[in-house]
């Protein structure tokens, strides 16, 4: 015996001896009776018309599927107290298979039975594979409006089918005929029973209402027949009572010899409907597991539940049964009655198994109106779940999709309704997604600049002319629905008498794109190139770069400037703006004079700071040692020399993060610190060009504090005046002066 079976046996023994045993008997017995009555009603609907003579065999198939499904799901599923059976949503497509299969007599029944068994087997194998390879996330993404519309549409179809089963013809053109006295009494009693049953269960929710009311209705019906002098045989002949059609037991419904009667051409024609049955079964499994999770407030293992339903369907198919899924109301009843044990499902399965092997004589006592009433009860429950509740929960647009699916299913069919719902949901999703703003932020280089250190004249130029470089940071997925609004907005920025010198598109937060987006973007890039605007693209993926190369003429693609990250792209935009200003200033002396006047005070202040820096270096010469670095050599970092504080005398160096992106660029006069200098973590600093620094070790700093307190205080005042942080570039005039002498630190 395997460990799993030993654990299961131990669990069942504990539950039998626990306080859960009595509630399990009560919940399991009532759930089994309710399932038994409902399954007989479902079978009578599926095996009607030309298949009515084989209704007993049909009941055998349905009941065996419920017996095997309930027992296996109970023993192998993750929720203790689960009850499984044939869900009403599958009844419609099963009835469609039965009514559209070509054939006559026994060969028709055998062909239909084989089609249902193949559907159950294929569904079970797929569910097993999904659970075995843990692929449930692939089938969980069913839009809620589609699921709700599907449920309500099935409910409406079940109600109409119930009226048809009771002898009326529910067609819109002849709706008035339903009120004729001769027709009215064929369906009104069953409809009244179904409505009353639904109201009673909704009002009181007692599990005994369904089986006790069914027994009472059968007794009252037979009493009425006796009062009117109608015998049982007459009632069965006129269709008022169901008739037994099997000699002996209900199962097995098929024998191996019966397979010789299969009409293979007719069976092959049902492949589309079998696939539809599988799809609806998947939807039912998903909805039932999700509904049970919500109802019992418990996280379930979806892969395990799929595996349990798959195994149940496979076993049921080999015995002539059909697909079985979780039944949420019956499973929830286990929790309400404190019967969350596998004994509950075992008792429910035993009730169905007892009826299965007892025989079909019990059918002769069941009124057709009772079967129709139970179907109406099931349909009203689905209408309430799909339409009434969602009218208050869903927004109007999404509820309109639910109503549309319901109407299409009732008027045209199940497949058409689900297809129309998926299409409507896709359109709704596309419209909603296309309204999402793909531009996360937009600014100019006047408002935000790169981390490159700039000279005072260049900073003044960027403050004055930075508005001629537009930067757009994009986000999300760019597709055909959102590309055109984005491109229209970008196009406005380059139209007009004075287009910008530069336009930057940052793709760092873009998750993907489709060909329509690439096509629209290519047209915009071509238009920007035509008006003389330089376009800089940041963080472009290889796929997007290749797509643009194929979509743009070679000359136009050559004009694009591609940079690996946002900072490098911003630097490129700044260079373009500065170069454009200088090109214009060569022919306009007024611009150069204005710039000189504008930065005069700033240059003076910069010179004062440089003098202060040089004086400090001169005073600290005994505590400093010179260092020289070649381009791309590390000044500060895990692989660099262990110098704690360095002052940059000449050259430029950049602080970089772990991915190599530039955080800040240092120039002459800056102070560069490393971890442990002041107890703070720093970024690595790499030379952009040949650099010369004066370095102070921790030992030298401590010696300075001990020997020259005044000089140490002057050093710290110098560092504090430079704010221990990177140069801020908000763009206000005061900040043109800059704050040279920063310490490269992760904590400012």
Provide tags for this entry:
748 residues, alpha+beta, five-stranded mixed β-sheet, four-stranded antiparallel β-sheet, 26 helices, 15 strands, disordered C terminus
Give a quick summary of the entry.
This protein has 748 residues and is an alpha+beta fold. Strands 3-4-5-6-7 form a five-stranded mixed beta sheet, sandwiched between helices. The protein has a four-stranded antiparallel beta sheet with strand order 8-15-10-13. Strands 9-14-11-12 form a four-stranded antiparallel beta sheet, with no helix packed on it.
Helix content: 55-70%
Q: What is the count of helical runs?
A: 26
Radius of gyration: 40 Å
Question: Which word captures the global form?
Answer: elongated
Major sheet, described briefly?
5 strands, mixed
Distance, first to last CA: 66 Å
Number of DSSP E strands: 15
Uncertain residue ranges = 674-681, 724-748
- Percent of sequence in beta strands: 5-15%
> For the residues shown, what is the average pLDDT?
81
- Kindly name the structural category: alpha+beta
Q: How do the strands line up in the largest sheet?
A: 3-4-5-6-7
């Amino acid at each position: 015996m395997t460990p799993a079976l030993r654990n299961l046996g131990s669990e069942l023994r504990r539950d039998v001896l626990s306080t859960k045993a009595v509630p399990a008997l009560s919940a399991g017995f009532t759930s089994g009776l309710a399932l038994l009555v409902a399954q007989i009603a479902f079978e009578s609907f599926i095996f009607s018309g030309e298949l009515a003579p084989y209704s007993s065999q049909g009941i055998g198939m349905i009941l065996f599927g419920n017996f095997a499904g309930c027992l296996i799901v109970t023993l192998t599923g993750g929720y203790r107290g689960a009850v499984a059976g044939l869900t009403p949503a599958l009844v419609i497509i099963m009835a469609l298979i039965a009514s559209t299969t070509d054939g006559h007599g026994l060969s028709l029944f055998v062909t239909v039975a084989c089609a249902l068994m193949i559907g159950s087997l294929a569904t079970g194998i797929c569910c097993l594979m999904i659970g075995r390879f843990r692929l449930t996330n692939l089938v969980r993404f069913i839009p809620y409006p589609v699921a709700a519309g599907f449920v309500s549409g099935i409910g409406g179809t079940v109600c109409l089918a119930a009226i048809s089963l009771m002898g009326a013809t529910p067609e819109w053109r002849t709706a008035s005929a339903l009120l004729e006295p001769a027709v009215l009494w064929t369906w009104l009693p069953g409809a009244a029973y179904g409505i009353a049953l639904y109201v009673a269960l909704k009002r009181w929710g007692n599990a005994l209402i369904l089986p006790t009311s069914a027994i009472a209705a059968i007794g009252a019906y037979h009493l009425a027949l006796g009062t009117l002098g109608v015998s049982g045989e007459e009632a069965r002949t006129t269709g008022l009572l169901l008739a037994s059609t099997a000699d002996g037991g209900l199962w097995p419904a098929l024998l191996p010899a019966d397979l010789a009667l299969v009409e293979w051409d007719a069976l092959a024609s049902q492949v589309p409907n079998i696939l539809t049955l599988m799809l609806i079964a998947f939807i039912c499994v998903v909805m039932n597991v999700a509904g049970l999770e919500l109802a019992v407030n418990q996280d379930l293992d979806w892969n395990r539940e799929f595996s349990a339903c798959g195994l149940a369907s496979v076993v049921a198919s080999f015995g002539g049964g059909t697909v079985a899924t979780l039944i949420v109301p019956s499973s929830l009843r286990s929790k309400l009655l404190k019967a969350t044990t596998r004994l509950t499902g075992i008792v429910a399965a035993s009730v169905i198994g007892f009826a299965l092997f007892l025989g079909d004589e019990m059918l002769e006592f069941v009124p057709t109106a009772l079967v129709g009433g139970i179907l109406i009860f099931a349909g009203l429950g689905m209408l309430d779940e799909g339409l009434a509740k969602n009218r208050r929960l869903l927004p109007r647009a999404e509820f309109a999709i639910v109503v549309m699916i319901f109407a299409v299913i009732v008027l045209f069919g199940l497949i058409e309704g689900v297809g129309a719902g998926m299409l409507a949901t896709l359109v709704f999703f596309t419209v909603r997604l296309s309204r999402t703003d793909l531009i996360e932020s937009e600014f100019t280089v006047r408002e935000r600049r790169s981390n490159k250190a700039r000279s005072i004249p260049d900073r003044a130029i960027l403050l004055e002319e930075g508005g001629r470089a537009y930067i757009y940071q994009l986000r999300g997925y760019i597709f055909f629905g959102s590309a055109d609004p984005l491109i229209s907005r970008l196009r406005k920025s380059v139209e007009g008498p004075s287009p910008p010198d530069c336009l930057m598109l940052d793709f760092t937060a873009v998750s993907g794109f489709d060909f329509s987006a690439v096509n629209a973007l290519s047209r915009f890039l071509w238009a920007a190139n035509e008006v003389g605007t330089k376009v800089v693209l940041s963080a472009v993926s290889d796929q997007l770069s290749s797509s643009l190369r194929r979509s743009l003429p070679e000359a136009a693609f050559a004009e694009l400037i591609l940079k690996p990250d946002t900072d490098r792209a911003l630097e490129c935009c700044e260079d373009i703006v500065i170069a454009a200003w200088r090109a214009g200033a060569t022919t306009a002396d007024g611009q150069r004079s204005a710039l000189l006047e504008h930065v005069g005070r700033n240059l003076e202040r910069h010179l004062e700071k440089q003098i202060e820096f040089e004086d400090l270096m001169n005073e600290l010469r005994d505590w400093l040692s010179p260092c020289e670095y070649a381009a791309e050599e590390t000044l500060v970092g895990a692989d660099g020399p262990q110098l704690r504080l360095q002052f940059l005398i000449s050259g430029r160096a950049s602080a970089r993060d772990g991915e190599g992106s530039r955080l800040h660029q240092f120039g002459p006069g800056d102070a560069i610190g490393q971890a442990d200098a002041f107890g703070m973590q720093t970024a690595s600093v790499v030379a952009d060009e040949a650099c010369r620094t004066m370095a102070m070790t921790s030992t030298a700093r401590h010696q300075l504090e001990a020997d020259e307190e005044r000089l140490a205080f002057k050093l710290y005042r110098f560092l504090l005046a430079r704010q221990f942080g990177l140069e801020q570039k908000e763009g206000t005039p005061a900040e043109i002066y800059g704050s040279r002498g920063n310490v490269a630190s992760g904590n400012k």
